[in-house]
Automatic annotation (TrEMBL):
Stretches assigned to the UspA domain: 28-165
Record's protein name: UspA domain-containing protein
């Protein structure tokens, strides 16, 4: 895809994720900050020169119980829950897509499931964006060891320049692992 004047668009991949706070089905603080920073500091008033690739990576439920776990009494119950789950996933992406469109920026959005570190890096390799922007929760040294840092992994393994956006101190919860 080319921008006005025939120049190719600069593609920026932004990794987005849902908040880790239970009962809070919205974008995380760190990914929202990274996305807004991208629009404000990189795209600015040159929206026609950029394309934003929005990648949401969902981590599979490892403990066997989460907010979507339910007991179903009928096929209709299952179908209704599946429909609700799909709508919630699309609503999440719609938040970012709408902001891109409101700012006149071309975008694509999609969802993958798996380890965010590996999937973000493999999607970068597949799509070859000019830049990857990720948010950071600001984990402590020990949290990075036990939880793992997606942003640090991407900085080391992504096949393009990576910008890591830290949360502002006013947006940082008491527990940095919450986002």
């Amino acid at each position: 895809m080319a921008a006005k004047g025939g120049k190719p668009l600069t593609t920026i991949m932004v990794a987005v994720n849902q908040s880790s706070v239970k009962g809070y089905p919205h974008a995380s603080i760190s990914c929202t900050g990274a996305f807004e920073w991208t629009l404000k500091k990189i795209v600015r008033s040159n929206a026609s020169g950029f394309k934003i690739l929005l990648l949401r990576v969902e981590v599979p439920d490892e403990d066997g119980f989460d907010d979507e776990d339910r007991t179903y009494g009928s096929a209709e119950d299952i179908q209704s829950m599946q429909h609700s789950f799909i709508l919630a996933r699309l609503k999440f992406l719609k938040f970012f897509v709408k902001q891109c469109h409101d700012n006149g920026v071309a975008c694509e959005a999609w969802i993958k499931q798996g380890d965010p570190r590996k999937l973000i890096s493999s999607e970068v390799k597949r799509l070859q964006p000019d830049l990857l922007v990720v948010g950071s929760r600001g984990l402590s040294f020990f949290q990075k060891i036990f939880i793992g840092s997606v942003s640090a992994y991407c900085q080391k393994n992504a096949d393009c320049p990576v910008i890591v956006i830290n949360r502002s101190p006013s947006q940082t919860p008491e527990d940095n692992a919450e986002d």
